[in-house]
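To the team - phenylalanine complex, inputs and output below.
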Amino acid sequence: MSTTTSVSSRWSSKLAFILAATGSAVGLGNLWKFPYIMGQNGGGAFVLVYLFCVLLVGIPVMMAEVYIGKEGRSSPAHAMGKVAREHNISSNWSYNGALGVLAGFLILSFYVVIAGWAVAYIYYSASGAITAANGQSAVIQHLFGSLVGSVDKLILFTTIIIGVSVYVLSHGVKQGLEIAIRYMMPALFILLVIVMLYSCATGDFHGAVQFMFYPDFSKLSFSGFLVALGHAFFTLSLSLGIMIMYGAYLPEGTSIAKTSIIVALADTVVALFAGLAIYPVVFAHGIAPGAGPGLLFKSLPIAFSNMPLGGFIATLFFVMVTFAALTSVLSLFEAPIAYFVERRGMTRISATILCGVLIWLLSLLSIFSLAGASWATFKTPLGNGFFDILDYVTANIMLPVCGLFTAIFVGWKLKVNKRTAKSFEMKVGFSQYIFCLRYITPAAITLVFLNAIGVLPW
Ligand code: PHE
Ligand code: NA
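Output:
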């Protein structure tokens, strides 16, 4: 970025940052995961704890990542090391990035399977299978069961998602995709609002609001706090170097705080709206809030099958869910690809194909455990079967650990001075921010960990 850039092109690259970061952040985490983990963890109290995690941990860590990217102005793996060198600190800090690469791989391996469900539901919507249910919950439950119970179907749809991603990443059609995000994200948002209004008007609105916004802490277990914290990282795409990568393009003069808050706010609003679209249907049709990973796909289609133009709206909706998932998948691919290109000297195309193949193989673990194969569904304290365990370990352990290191790195290791303040471009609240990053964020992560393993006395 040259110093003579006009105001309008700076504005557009600030917008480009917000679009790319929102494209990565808004995805299955909001539409699929947040509603079902909220249901499993008792509703309102979970939502409240989650909002605190976004505010006191998620946003501060996102700002720290964007700052590392802006200072380092290079790829995520190098950015942390480069910033460390400039401040005369050990470049071992760049290993934090390695943990991120591994977590990215593991997340992708189950994320692509769920994205495959969304593809399947485009087909079910367009072929009339959803409208044929005529509001009968049993038919919709059966449809979902027939998808998840079939290893062949799961492999087919997962392969489509991985294939499209590898194609996009290796053919450099990302530019076109970025233009698509510009229109798809607002379109998804408008459609989500329509579905939410319909579902609140025709379903159990009162029950949904009661469930989501009246905190009952007796329903929130110790591990529920950890799930809320882990989800704040997962949903904001933190700890994997993604915000570091995008931060490298942040123009001078842009407030790191403002842009991060915009992204986090957009992400949170989508998640809450998804909840308000799903829960009125859930309560009106006697579906259990704790139904698990199938919740989105077992509930909304009932509403679609009742709605005027339901088949059409359902098709559009799942196309957009697929798009939202795809943009997140593409961002997740970046760190593993960069690893093979920068550390192993591969070309971008072969690195992309290799990552695609590895993730496809790894996805079989989740596919078999979701389909109920006995070898893939053993019980452990962290969850039952590969899918649960991969989800739990990545979101609730790996991401918060990386985030803790990032907070310590920027909060304690880097010299915070006038220049840092200038780089953050914050007119107000900079010292409060640094205080939060130094004390509150690390303390919150540590307390939630200790709490979850039962070390704390309460
Ligand atoms: N934030 C994405 C979502 O909510 C998922 C994601 C996690 C993407 C981690 C990138 C990195 O769907
Ligand atoms: Na998200």
